[in-house]
Every structure is written in C-alpha cells, then in structure tokens.
Amino acid sequence: MYGISASPLAMANEHDEVAIFDTGSDNSRLEGLARGVTSRFGGMAHIAQYSMTGADVKRTAIPRTLSLAMTIGRSIRLSREQRVDPVQALVDSLADTLYGYGRVLFHGKVIDVDRRTDEGFARGSVRIAGVGDEELEVQFQNENLIAVQSGVMVAIVPDLICIVEADTAEPVTTEGLRYGQRVAVIGIATPPIMRTPEALAVFGPASFGLDRPFLPVETLEQPVLAE
C-alpha cells in the first residue's frame, strides 16, 4: 500500500517443495498464484515476501510489534498468577502502545459457526450468545472482519477484532472456533498507518466486500446500526 512490491515471493511446504513467484508490480496477480499453489500444497504454506531496505521498513512497517507481543504475553501470565481477569489485563496492556485503545466488546458462548474454504480463504461467520437475548455475530475471511451486536456494528476491519477464551485469554483463530466455547471478543484500534486512505484502499471494508464505511472502534461505543 506504500509502494513496496510483494515480488519476489518464496514459498515452501512441509514436504520441502518450494515455489518462487515474480509478477513485478502486480500484487493481486501474485496473491492469486500463491493461493492457488497453497491449495495444491494441501492448504498450508510458509512464505517470505516484501523484501525491502531498512529505510523502507522504517517508512512502512508498524514498529515495536515484538515488544508488544512480549508485553501482552507478560500481562496475561501475571494476571493468571495473580488470579485476576486475563482478558481485561490484555486490554489494559495496550494503553501505552501504538495500538492504544481496546475494549471488551462481548462475553458469551459460541452457538453457531458457519465456515467454508473458498478460493483459498476460510470464510464464514460465528454467532455468540450473551446475557438475555444479546447476540454478537462476527464475519470473517481468514481474519475477523466485522462485529455486529444485536444489529449494531461495534467494530470493523482494519481495526482488530480478537476472539479469546474467556477464562485464559488464549486466542481462538477462525479455524479454531467451535460450538460451546466460552469466549470474549475484544476490539482494538489499529495504528494510524493502517487508517490512511492508501491503507483503507487495500485493507478497508470495501476490499472484503463489506458495504460499510470504516469507523474507528473507539468511536463505536455509541450504537451504529448495521444495515
């Protein structure tokens, strides 16, 4: 989105089969080819791409994400040792990071998962039942795209919608969603570099077929009706 080409891309599977692609500046073509080969690999591949200079990294990358991962992990570990809520500890650990804002959107039990593999993506939705008649539905395409609570949108891509186990804060991927899981859903503000017009053109709602504008999660504490 900031002028760095995905080519060349190298990929490999667990059988030591490898492939290398170079489509020049056509990143969409590159992704299509790579997903096709990944399907023939059995649905799993490891890739390396977006080679760049140090200057390009400083200009385009989100910094200090390894430190962020350590901070989150440490907060969850300490919360378990101290027997306090690990989900809230995770949210609180974001305050002094580039992500800055997070809140628990919903607590509940997974009551339905609709998941299918389509064009190399895990697509579908999950419904989570809360207290009373409250329900949250999350649509996903490999990653979680939009969260709607009883008709009200509470978060949308590229902000993060994270589903974790309610008691441990262990992450639950879209492939790991199962009926009966007790989960918490967390909305996290993505850094400013992911909210520019250039970024939204690549990662915004429209690129996933969502007919909704991007609205920052921190502005959605007040209800926004989902169509």
Q: What can be said about this structure in brief?
A:
The protein is α+β, with helices and mostly antiparallel strands. The chain has helices at 27-40, 54-60, 65-82, 86-92, 197-203, and strands spanning 9-12, 18-21, 46-48, 102-118, 121-129, 135-141, 143-149, 152-156, 160-165, 182-188, 224-225. α3 runs antiparallel to α4 (86-92).
* Beta-strand residue fraction: 25-35%
Biggest β-sheet: strands ordered side by side in the sheet: 9-10-4-5-6-7-8-11
Q: Identify the overall geometry.
A: globular
Mean pLDDT across all amino acids: 92
Largest sheet: 8 strands, antiparallel
How far apart the termini lie comes to: 29 Å
Q: Stretches where pLDDT falls below 50 for ≥5 residues? A: 223-227
User: Count of DSSP helices?
Assistant: 5
How many β-strands, per DSSP? 11
- Oligomer status: single chain
What class do helices, strands and sheet pairing give? alpha+beta
Spatial extent as radius of gyration:
19 Å
Order of helices and strands: EEHEHHHEEEEEEEHE
Share of residues in helices:
10-25%
